[in-house]
Backbone:
């Protein structure tokens, strides 16, 4: 039996075409007991009981935020974790009283967890629930609706996120079919001493709880989130192109020096050296100008694509 939402009982096969009218009710004790022993898999495929992610250890008070993401290639969820990890670091969590933990659960195969951690630079443990039993039992739903507007945590455009997602899936080869259910959406649950004290269920594919709201729920009210460092694809392309030009110039200068070491037929060795030096200085000036132009483009275009 699934957890009741605002308008309906959401089962594991339910599919929707628009925003879902879900509620954010916390779990009753019997609901939590029903899912406590369900397995989640780590990056090596080893199963762990769900309750091991949030249960207190040695009777010490424990607080844990568990974030349920969509499939492992979802660019929206990846952006969410990048922004959250930048704003809420492990050091920040350790400074809280009691300390807070964060755990991530996706609906794909555990083979992709290492790739996902690398792509998102997420410092928190990531698990997989390919059966989606936890999603269904905790009242999370299924939809492909994007929602009315882009969330604050998105620092890439939608087309850019889609392209990145497709590229990641193709890059994994057979892993492209292991990302998980594209219809499945997730949510965020805060556990305090083994009880759910707050939760947010997504009603569309971009409806993660915004970072300021998450910070408030974690007890970070009034703290200013640090700026997230991002680099646009345009900047990366410009840097790559500039790097190739510099490499080509270095090869050209090297060939010039090699030629200058051989005696010229007319014996004018010094003239050849001076010519090579002049060519090298000209190349350096051109490189500096390109660097200035690239920097100006970065400043005017912003930091994201």
Residues:
């Amino acid at each position: 039996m699934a957890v009741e939402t605002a308008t309906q009982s959401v089962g594991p096969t339910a599919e929707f075409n628009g925003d879902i009218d879900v509620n954010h009710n916390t779990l009753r004790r019997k609901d939590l007991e029903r899912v406590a022993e369900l397995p989640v898999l780590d990056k090596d495929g080893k199963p762990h009981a769900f309750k091991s992610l949030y249960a207190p250890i040695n009777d010490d008070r424990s607080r844990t935020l568990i974030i349920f993401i969509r499939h492992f290639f979802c660019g929206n969820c990846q952006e969410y974790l990048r922004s959250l990890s930048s704003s809420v670091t492990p050091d920040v969590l350790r400074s809280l009283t009691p300390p807070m933990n964060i755990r991530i659960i996706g609906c794909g195969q555990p083979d992709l967890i290492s790739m996902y951690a690398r792509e998102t630079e997420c410092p928190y443990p990531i698990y997989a629930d390919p059966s989606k039993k936890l999603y269904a039992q905790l009242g999370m739903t299924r939809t492909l609706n994007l929602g009315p507007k882009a969330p604050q945590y998105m620092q890439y455009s939608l087309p850019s996120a889609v392209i990145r997602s497709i590229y990641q899936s193709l890059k994994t080869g057979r892993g492209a079919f292991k990302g998980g259910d594209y219809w499945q959406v997730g949510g965020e649950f805060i556990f305090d001493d083994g009880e759910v004290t707050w939760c947010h269920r997504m009603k569309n594919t971009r409806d993660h709880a915004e970072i300021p709201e998450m910070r408030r729920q974690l007890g970070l009210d009034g703290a200013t989130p640090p700026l997230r460092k991002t680099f646009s694809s345009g900047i990366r392309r410009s840097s790559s192109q500039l790097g190739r030009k510099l490499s080509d110039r270095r090869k050209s200068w090297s060939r010039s020096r090699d030629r200058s070491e051989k005696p010229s037929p007319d014996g004018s060795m010094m003239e050849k050296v001076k010519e090579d030096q002049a060519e090298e200085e000209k190349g350096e000036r051109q490189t500096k100008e390109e660097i200035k132009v690239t920097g100006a483009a970065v400043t005017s275009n912003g930091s994201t694509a």
In short: The radius of gyration is 26 Å. Residues 4-14, 231-242, 290-305 have pLDDT under 50 and may be disordered. The CA atoms of residues 54 and 108 lie 21 Å apart.
